[in-house]
Design brief:
The complex is a heterodimer of chains A (117) and B (115).
Chain A: E1 4-5, E2 10-14, E3 19-21, E4 24-25, E5 32-39, E6 46-52, E7 60-61, E8 64-69, E9 74-79, E10 88-96, E11 106-107, E12 111-116
Parallel strand pairs in A: 2-12
Antiparallel strand pairs in A: 1-4, 3-9, 5-6, 5-10, 7-8, 8-9, 10-11, 10-12
Chain B: E1 4-7, E2 10-13, E3 19-25, E4 32-38, E5 44-51, E6 57-58, E7 67-73, E8 76-81, E9 90-97, E10 104-106, E11 110-114
Parallel strand pairs in B: 2-11
Antiparallel strand pairs in B: 1-3, 3-8, 4-5, 4-9, 5-6, 7-8, 9-10, 9-11
């Protein structure tokens, strides 16, 4: 089974609207972390937001929020007030186990977001 | 600003030659760095975990003799693609965790084209 599943290959949103990018995960480890990264066409990976499995509250970072539903094993990214500069590929990723020396991430297949006027 | 830096950003090399890509953590020490490979419009696939002062740990299916990883210091890991072939053309990107925080930072990535 896929560890990280992003079911939306592509999404369109109008400028200033909110958009939700879906991510579900699969792990039996009680300690894990979930990440969202933005990858513009230049290729760099830009960290957006992090949610730990034991965090009680949903993570928020500016216009980004993570809708963490642990029982459903979903960690959807919500971008509010979309901007043209938000057009990019978005990856959901998971780190299994507690933070430590081994922080390898497993990535989803990504969602290409395009913000339109 | 960037906390992890990669060099070069772009490299074109001839088939059969070797090319080295550097990954540096800026202003922090990284005992572990990670190397990923990404084909166009695909996800990132972990190639190997680079451990300072010891041998790298390679993921299944990754040829360790072809993709040489050296983590000689706490701020530098290098990936050398030996005897490169056109199928090695890809986007290579490294990452490192800064301190004890949860954030994992990525380098800017390196585009390799083998002709």
């Amino acid at each position: 089974a896929q560890k990280i599943t992003q079911t939306q290959p592509g999404m369109f949103v109008q400028e200033k609207e909110a958009v939700t990018l879906d991510c579900t995960y699969d792990t039996s480890d009680p300690s894990y972390g979930l990440f969202w990264y933005k990858q513009p066409s230049s290729g760099e990976m830009i960290f957006l937001i992090y949610q730990g499995s034991y965090d009680q509250q949903n993570a928020t970072e500016g216009r980004y929020s993570l809708n963490f539903q642990k029982a459903r094993k979903s960690a959807n990214l919500v971008i509010s007030a979309s901007q043209l500069g938000d057009s990019a590929m978005y990856f959901c990723a998971m780190r299994e186990g507690s933070p430590g020396g081994g922080n390898k991430l497993t990535f989803g297949t990504g969602t290409q977001l395009k913000v339109e006027l | 600003g960037a906390v992890v830096s990669q060099h070069p950003s772009w490299v074109i090399c001839k088939s059969g030659t070797s090319v080295k890509i550097e990954c540096r953590s800026l202003d922090f020490q990284a005992t572990t760095m990670f190397w990923y490979r990404q084909f166009p419009k695909q996800s990132l696939m972990l190639m190997a975990t680079s451990n300072e002062g010891s041998k790298a740990t390679y993921e299944q299916g990754v040829e360790k003799d072809k993709f040489l990883i050296n983590h000689a210091s706490l701020t530098l890991s290098t990936l050398t693609v030996t005897s490169a072939h056109p199928e090695d053309s890809s986007f290579y990107i490294c990452s490192a965790r800064r301190g004890t925080g949860n954030t994992i930072y990525f380098g800017e990535g390196s585009w390799l084209t083998v002709v």
